[in-house]
Amino acid sequence: MNEHDTVSFGYEEVSPEDKTARVGAVFSSVAKKYDIMNDVMSAGMHRLWKDTFVRRVKPQPGEQILDMAGGTGDIAFRMAARGASITVSDINQDMLDVGVERAMERGIDGLVWSCQNAETLNFPSRSFDAYTIAFGIRNVTRIDKALAEAYRVLRFGGRFFCLEFSTTEWPGFREAYDAYSHKLVPQLGQMVAGDAESYRYLIESIRRFPPMPQFQAMIEDAGFVQTRVEPILGGLVAIHSGWKV
Known about the structure:
Elements: E1 7-9, E2 12-14, H1 16-30, H2 34-42, H3 45-57, E3 64-68, H4 74-80, E4 85-90, H5 93-106, E5 112-115, E6 128-134, H6 143-153, E7 154-165, H7 173-193, H8 196-208, H9 212-221, E8 225-232, E9 237-243
Parallel strand pairs: 3-4, 3-6, 4-5, 6-7
Antiparallel strand pairs: 1-2, 7-9, 8-9
């Protein structure tokens, strides 16, 4: 990547360094209200999506799993309950701090919390049995580098699972959701979290994320095989998966 290349920050084109800094500011701003806003924006459906996601991952006792962009612990708590050993990583320490606080409130211990950039993980190669990332990869500055790192830190036979917003293919629903997300979500962000602009970015970042077939191809380009995509609500949300063999 040369100095003139840019990446998307919502509907803007910015330098990679600027995106990383601005995304960090977004999540520092929304960290305290992040989970409440997830409930408000999705009418609680994000809980069902995450339950389905963890069922697909099938965490097993004794497995080592890296939950990237795992900030507030929602996915990690579900997987730890199944006996797996979870390392929760996030580039944003404010999000991790919320997760640690939530874990203490719930009496959940044994989790490892680690501030990490998904593009440059400091874990040794072949360290984990599974790599999960939920609603986080679209905020990564260079998605291809994050996928390459996911592949590197997985053991042979390891699995990659990603839960992310996409573009629903259901006629009518797509238009209704576009209107809701662009017009109402920033207003809800202002009311609940006191921050309309961060939620405007988060919605725009969904629109800029690659369509399901394109992202599946990126996962394959990183080296994963037997890739699969499972659309939810016509592709409003999708579970992507692949294996390292």
